[in-house]
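[Solved] Which block belongs to which protein?

Original post:
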Amino acid sequence: MILVTGANGFIGKNVVKELQNRSLSYITLNRNSQASDNIHFIQDISQPLHVENLQAIKNCDTLIHLAWNGLPHYKELYHIEENLMAQYNFIKACIQAGVKNITITGTCLEYGLQEGELSTDTATKPFTSYAIAKDCLHKMVHNLQEHFDFNLKWVRLFYVYGEGQAKHTLYGQLIDAVHQGLKVFNMSTGDQQRDYLHISKVAKYIVDVSQSQQPYKVYNCSSGNPLRVLDFVNTIIKENKFNIELNTGYYSYPDYEPKSFWGKPTII
């Protein structure tokens, strides 16, 4: 049985769909009671596990942990001061309950401001509070392998996109602008290079990793293909036949990302 956290999020919904496509048995946990056929248990992971939820977790042998609060506010101290220990305590409780196969999603921001192709051998140099917390969580859970018998797979996500993505993302903003009937889409100059991967491929990759039997491994979930942000946006417009013009240079570059970086994909 597979336990999925964050199942009501953008990535979580697609991971659950992939599990359903493979006829894999799963239960899901989410922090609120938002209506969804995918949510079986309600649990704020910053709080002690409810007795009934703990019992359900004891029936699971695999965890796909996607939940993370406070995004997209990458610089907020909340990630370090509150979220980090809440995440660690929850994962440790799952391990103590007998879950042996742990897959956790990290972030490409763990690499910090380093440019070019980034492999899992590249040293992490996190810059934002969010990335620091993720990097610390990875190391803390890895250290638990000195004390408990379980497999750990850490999956660093790069730039995921697709239908249903939040409006604060570039893809989500573009889709929202089109739905509003706007004729102009404001963006940066778009000459940054990023590594984009469609959500369907990301969900498949995460499930594939969760089903592998590696005792410990770090993965880059990436395409390996650097793509200019402007080219990415133009491709989405062309593929969907959107009638919208681009106003480039309206926004400055985010100061928490390098200008050009992409991942070296990890073979499962």
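(Second protein starts here: sequence line, then its structure tokens.)
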Amino acid sequence: MAKKWTTDERARLRAELVQLYILENKTISEIARHLNLGQSAVYDRLKKLDIPIGRSRKAGFNNQRLIKSLPLSRDLAEFVGVLCGDGHIAQYQIWVHLGNKEGRYAKNICQLFKKICGQNLSWYKRNKRDIDLFISSISLVKFFKNMGLVGNKIKKSLRIPNWIFSDGEYLRRFIRGFFDTDGSIYRLKFGVQISFTSKSTMLLKDTRRVLLLLGFRPSRRSVHRIYLTRQSDIVKFHRSISSSNPAKKRRLDNYVGRFA
């Protein structure tokens, strides 16, 4: 648990940030480098110290030069699956939250995003363990929100965007992105099972619909999960969906290899 600031510490930290953020008009990214902190830590400190955040005064305000629209593609469909899983759309930023052992997968997501829009995701280690990938961009936030993606997946009933259903390859790549983030594969006593987990009821219903359209035979929703259990479905998933998450791909390869 973070130590509570004393009155003197709070005054010193506030004066420091007022000087950097207000008087010198540095960006959060520049302050983070200057203080050797993560960008999220600087943002949180500004909020806690009641320093108004004025992005519009900063050079390159929220990367407005970024794309206002992206062409629909298989890579974009996979990234949408990632966002529906471990992603979060904030007011000004897009985030992907990963575990501390998913460094290789984080690099794959960065490469995928670079292919989609030619921009880099920033990398931040939260609590010196978990990995956060993010980009600040009002235009990209608007693009994904206009697509139907929402910040609160449960309260606002997140759905899979309609355009994903227009092409079989979009469906496959969406499922890959969603599996890589909120999916699991594990052994049962008499076989192997793949599960998809979400507290968003509508997202799970849409995911089940996608799996049915792709010829799989998923279970009905069970609390916050749906399952693939038939051996033929596991083999088909390995062949037609696969994974971009190295850890999950290794498990998928190993389990399916035992069926051969």
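Accepted answer:
You had them paired correctly. Confirming on the second one: The radius of gyration is 21 Å.
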